[in-house]
Structure formats: structure tokens, C-alpha cells
Amino acid sequence: MSPTRDGGIGNRGQCPRLLLATSSKKKIAELRPMLDGLSVELVTPDDMGLDLDPEETGETFEDNARLKALAFARAAVMPALADDSGLEVDALGGAPGVYSKRYAGPDSRDADRIALLLKNLAGVADAQRSARFRCVIALATPDGVVGTRSGVCDGSIGHAPRGENGFGYDPVFLVQGTGRTMAELSANEKNRVSHRGRAAGAARELIEIWLQSGGGPRTGASGDSHAHEGRAGATSDGVGSAL
Predict the structure, then answer these.
(1) Is Hydrolase found in the keyword set (predicted)?
(2) Which residues contact 45 (CB under 8 A, 6 or more apart)?
């Protein structure tokens, strides 16, 4: 299928279309309810017949989110929303960071990455196992990046995987103040406290303001949403600057 021109907010349907710029079905499944209620039609690369895997060459999550959003927007010729996220462990100097997905090699599985993480933290006391999940979401049109929003969830790294939900490092990430790993939370609980849930909550405002403005690139807009300590259901304490 060849993408059709939809670079602005208008299209042939009732709502403007917005491409979720990821091939990860698990990410898409998380993002859809987070963005529910917006006046957009969410579409996926599969819907567009688009096979794209941009190389993540950025030095930060924001760099990678911006380059992915722009690559998908230009390939599909329509607005796109991309995220980049990962785990930062203080005892490892912030690693794995932007290399979270490639921590144990380019073809590694979640279990391989978790095993390496736990190996590298062997002997590290609980008090020194602090960590956080960080996510940056970028909105782009074919003409440029509109803006970014970010979210953080604080916690620590456990000593063994627990829980059956989620993906990635969720089974070893203890959400601060809950006593449970991210993989032990229900989908609704995770969406309320996760880094992606907070970034998406802030990105909703970005999308709404962009729609109201008539669309088009406004580069440089960014904002943060951070999980407060000790409350599993804490809401965002800020949605960032307006466009």
C-alpha cells in the first residue's frame, strides 16, 4: 500500500489520522487506551502497509523519539507519534539508558536483558539499587517535529523477576511505594503510574493544542511528567509548557 498525502490535520475521514510510530504490538496496545478520547483516528504502520525501523542513533531518549517520529511522518506522509524509553539504574551510571533494548545484544530477548542486568547488580545492596523508567514522546508532521513530552517512574531493581504482565524490564522493576514490580500491576494500574502513561498523558495536551492551532511544525516544545514518590496512583505533576 502506498501512503497518501495526509501531512496536515485534515483527511477524508471524520477525524485526522495520527500514526503510532512503532512496530511493537505491546507498545501500541499500551498507547491506544492512553490516547483514547482524542479527536484523532489512531493508525499503525501495519494499517499503512509501512515497514520501517529507523536506526536509533541519538544520544538521548528525546533524540531518538524525535528522529523516529519524523522518519515515520515522512515515510507515511502524515502526522506521527513516536516514543523512546528505557531504564536508568543509578548503580550502573544510568545504564542501560538509551541502549535498554540492545543491552544484551541486538537480537537479545527480554529474559536475556534482565539476566544481564541482575548479573551486573550482583552484590549491590537494596539501598543502592535505585532506578527509573524514562519515556519521551515526540509528535511530528512530514514538515518537522511539533514537540515532545516526557514521563518518569521511579523505583528500584529487585533480585529476581516477579509478575506476568508487561514486558521489557517490568518483572524486575519495583515501583516505588507499592512493593510490587511493574509486571505485577494490572494494565490500568500500570497506565496510571508508568513512564509511558505519564508521557502519553502530557502528550495528549500537546496533540490537543496542535489540533486547535490547525497543525504544522512547532519545534522545540517539550515538557516533563514525573511520578511522585510513594504513591502507586500518583498523577502527573506537570504537563509541560504549551506550544
Answers:
(1) yes
(2) 19, 20, 21, 22, 23, 51, 52, 72, 76
Query: Which residues are part of a known binding site for Mg(2+)?
Result: 55, 84
Taking alpha carbons only, the member of 226, 227, 212 closest to residue 242 is: 212
Whether residue 222 is predicted with pLDDT greater than 70 in this model: the reply is no
Determine the Cα–Cα distance for residues 123 and 110; give it in Å rounded to an integer: 22
More confident residue, 217 or 173: 173
Active-site residue set = 84
Pick 17-226's CATH classification: 3.40.1160.10, 3.90.950.10, 2.60.120.200, 1.25.40.10. Answer: 3.90.950.10
CB 58 within 8 A of CB 64: yes
**Amino acid code (one letter) for 83:** D
Among 185, 184, 132, CA closest to 156:
132
Q: For residue 27, what are the CA distances in angstroms to 85, 195, 197?
A: 11, 12, 11
Question: Residues annotated as binding site for substrate?
Answer: 22-27, 85, 167-170, 190, 195-196
| Distance (Å, whole) CA 196 – CA 31 | 8
Distance CA 169, CA 219 (A): 32
Rounded Cα–Cα distance for residues 155 and 234 (Å): 13
Residue 26, classified by CB atoms within 10 Å of its CB into exposed (0-12), middle (13-18) or buried (19+), is exposed
> According to the model, what pLDDT value does residue 68 have?
96
User: Which of 227, 83, 235 has the alpha carbon at shortest distance from 156?
Assistant: 227
